[in-house]
Design a protein that fits this description.
35% of the residues lie in helices and 26% in strands. The protein is an alpha/beta fold.
Length: 244
């Protein structure tokens, strides 16, 4: 039964045909718990990478989009915020999946609490190499140049960038790739909220912060590499859901 005041949030699923078991968990989630929520937020990195909306015909991608569209048709409002792996999504993806796009960051009201939603990568200010690449890759010109390449070339390039990213992680310390404390405090101050929910770091946890005398909470969504997880929010508060 649909519960309009229930919100579910997920991120960092990194869906790919190389991990069919993760897709199976996601499809079960969409067919079950997601249809009970008034709103489902996907805070980035739904896919391991998205090569462009002309890749919608790929059977794997089509399966994901169709399942998302069915959730929306059942009554759940679905919202999508692009992450660092799927920022090439466009209008056709949104129409096919019946998703509404969100800017990163965005403040929404969750059960009466103004909440800042982010993918989370901009909080990792110690990861200078990544942020330098992000600054270039998010420009309209880079996007235009990338999408002008043949689909096969784009797939190969993005797969190479994904492999480079995974390799680079092996030489970076955990503290470099995690959210920077000062950046987190600045986000609380700038947006005037006491709750932040984000993904990106793959470190599922709840953190308490004291910012300028205000008690604040930060919920970090986990990845789906071993088991699925979602954050459930309603008038009673926030709680984790483990999905299998």
């Amino acid at each position: 039964m649909l519960k309009p005041d229930l919100t579910l949030l997920v991120s960092d699923l990194h869906l790919t045909a190389r991990r069919p078991e993760t897709l199976a968990v996601f499809l079960r989630f969409l067919a079950g718990p997601a249809r009970e929520a008034g709103t489902l937020y996907i805070l980035g990195d739904l896919f391991d990478y998205w090569a462009g909306d002309d890749d919608l015909a790929d059977p794997f991608n089509a399966t994901v989009c169709s399942a998302l569209a069915e959730v929306a048709a059942a009554g759940t409002q679905t919202r999508f915020m692009a992450g660092n792996r799927d920022f090439l999504v466009g209008g056709q993806f949104g129409v096919s999946s019946r998703l509404t796009f969100l800017e990163d960051p965005t403040v929404v009201d969750l059960a009466g609490t103004p909440t800042l939603l982010m993918h989370g990568d901009t909080l990792c200010t110690d990861d200078a190499d990544y942020l330098a690449f992000r600054a270039v890759a998010r420009t309209p010109q880079w996007r235009t140049d990338m999408l002008a390449k043949p689909l096969a070339e784009r797939r190969a390039l993005l797969d190479s960038l994904r492999a480079q990213s995974e390799s680079a992680k092996q030489t970076k310390g955990y503290d470099v790739m995690d959210a920077n404390a000062e950046a987190v405090a600045a986000a609380f101050r700038e947006h005037g909220v006491t709750r932040i929910i984000h993904g990106h770091t793959h470190r599922q946890a709840r953190h308490d912060h004291l910012v300028d005398g205000r008690a604040c909470e930060r919920w970090v969504l986990g990845d789906w590499h071993t088991t699925g997880n979602a954050l459930s929010v309603d008038a009673s508060g926030c709680r984790w859901l483990t999905l299998s």
